[in-house]
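Thread: Modeling a multi-component assembly for a lab meeting

Hi all, long-time lurker, first post. My supervisor asked me to bring a structural picture of a complex we are working on to next week's group meeting, and I have zero experience with this. I have the sequence lines for every component (877 residues in total). Could someone generate the structure of the whole assembly? Inputs are pasted exactly as I received them:
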Amino acid sequence: MLTYVVRRLVTAALILLGASFLVYLLTALSGDPLADLRASSAPNRQALMDARSSLLDLDTPAPVRYFKWLGGAAQCLVPFGNACNLGKNIAGQPITEALGFALVQTLTLVTGATVLAILIGISLGIVTALRQYSALDYGVTFMAFLFFSLPIFWVAVLLKEFGAIGFNDFLRNPQIPPGVALGIGAVLGVIAAVVVGGAAKRRLIVGGTVFAVVTLILIYFSITLWFRNPGLGPVVIAILGAGIAVGITVLVSGLKNRKALQSSLIVVAIGVIAYFAVQPLLNEATGLMIFILAVGTILIGVAVGYFMGGYDRGQSMRAAGITAFLVGALVLIDRYMQAWPSYFDNSRVRGRPIATIGAGTPNIQGDFWVLSTDTMTHLVLPTIALILVSLASYTRFTRSSMLEIMNMDYIRTARAKGLSERSVIMGHAFRNALIPIATIVAFDIGALIGGAVITETVFSVHGMGFLFIDGLLHTDPNPVMGVFVCVAITAMAFNLIADLAYSALDPRVRIKA
Amino acid sequence: MSQPTQEEEILAQQALAEAAATEASSEETSGLSQGQIVRKRFFGHTGALVGLAVLAIILVLAFTSVGAWGLPGWWKYNYLDVSPLVNDGAPTASLWPLAWGEHPFGQDRIGRDLFAMTMRGAQQSITVMVLIGAIAGAVGAIVGGLAGYFRGWVEAVLMRLTDVIIIIPVLLLAAVVGQIANRRDEGSWFASFASSNGVVILGIFLGFVSWVGLARLVRGEFLTLREREFVDAARISGASNARIIFKHILPNAVGVLIVNVTLTMSAAILLETALSYLGLGVHAPDISLGLLVAQNQEAFATRPWLFWFPGLFIILICLSINFIGDGLRDAFDPRQKKFKAKSAVETTRHSSTTPVVPNVPKEQ
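Re: Modeling a multi-component assembly
Sure thing. I ran the full set together rather than chain by chain. Output:
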């Protein structure tokens, strides 16, 4: 095991050396860094050219420059040395500094999108596998192909037009015409009817219910101008929480496990009481406080499950913990909604909340809620775009993995033992289907740092991709190398993690040292 | 990353075990040759047929309408011609009554015909795509085949080379290469060739960075096949290495190759459009679909058609190729059988380890 890891690390270091040499040479070869100055008519043209030549060390041939760069970069390996030197970019800024800034921007942009894409993709994949060759399956398959074929810059422009400008116009007078409400309700009803499956009567009932509920809610939103002044309130939180408790219990343990259901419901009750208790606390919120509260919420849920016990204590704890987390999220959403009007009327926002470019409104003033709402409104569009284009591969991969598992002998054995369909799917199939997915998720997380070059360009986020492209357009190897080294190291680390995780999850796979 | 992953090896073992099982259990295909079976399966795949038809229509439309390789086309405008604005440049094509009109896709601000521009862009994008597919397929097959068949130091060298290239994210490498391909230094023969054939150069350069994934797949396939009995039999009866590779192994590996070249091509068209969008691919005055979208995105509010049509063509091309690839995969993969979940009583082992959406990286 240890030999294997060490060998992998040594190979990785050699590969990194080779690849970085290649990238450096190619970048240096890709153009003329003085091109814009040569074309300029400034009187001090020669002085500018000399200055840039000495800054980028252009008199030294590129291969030699690479080894100079390598010498500086090697100092980064000294722990706590603070001598890290990745060179300077064309504007004279140290690369390490620029990288730090870009990394934060990129991670805020892609983390949420990736997590959501994975969650949605896996759920869709499982549902389509369970309803193979149904209308839903064909529909999702077609959508997956379509999304996979979408150029993201094209999607982004559409989102800006309809998602941001259109939605902002709608918010000016948030009234939904009855026809639109009926239409949305009908679409969601049909989707629900297709998803449930089963007999025609069951589909009709579910579809009809969804249609009626959605339409009524939309009409209610329209009458009360809810979108201008959104909020949930304790009553809605209680109702939604009860629904969540039942749903989570169905998935985790089945409704037959009464203790699990009871502990989830108790957690919801605690949540509604806590809703009133934490409001004053939330007014002084910071990011750290939210994080501590979230951890505390989960712990309370797990504790409730533990004390309720039942014949399977673990199931109760899991069900109650997940329910607690989701109810906590509802309380948080409610607090964001309370802050929405003050954000909406902020003098910098001026009633057009969904932003089309950038990572934040410049010079915005406000408390924690206004500021984080601002970040989120800027993240909405890029996140949707990224989810759309990366959803397809997760859906298809989960679907094929799940289909393969459902055909295994041990699934037939589980059914033959008389297990319920829920525990066959959740306990036997789903867990095993997750093994191959865990590897591609690890790969994708490794590639996260590389950022979404095109998305960053379209939405003017100055992240890693922007740094790279900007360096490349100026034929400036240093930023290009900085980004490349970060990307390559994380990618290789996560590849190693993926392989180790695979052999840990699937005992048939042995690591050969 | 550097060694063959455990996954790969376990898949290879499974494939060996299953090959025996599936060869016996194909009743509906008895008496047919491998080619006939593949063709039969492919033409039974509706999605692939529709994709094939759409792609054929686009190809014919793009290459005959504005002409190519110096030949004139049947459309009256050229992608550079400026003509007076008709109806402020709005598209004249309509579905009901079905009419083509003067400028079916509309005109841009200065009066160039969008239909001609889109067709020219589609030509360029398709050219780049085909070049990438062909070069990546050839290089990938050669590198992967040599590494998989000869093992030893050949494999070590070739696969380490692959590893070096594969850790550079595709879009980043392609951006660097695209920039090099666009370099126009004065005076050399390369520059004079490149100035008239910019997209060809771009396609060739991109092809030489896109082969790594294919090389790994082909190598994996060769690794499994060279251990099979028929290869041993051929070797014992005195066949040369070249004969074994071309007569015995390659025909069995060609399915994987074709399927993945197709999928590489669908990723290639997105790669080219993305690079052109970023300003690192096809440059003005030449035109590609991605460049058209990039040039016209600001005009979305006033002239949305400038934005719709090029994007629509990107999606149509990419989507139809994806469907063709899906059909080819179904046709070539003998282990993959259609089955109904409810009636899966018989002992067919359904193995769909490969996701239908390819593993080729998607540019974000």
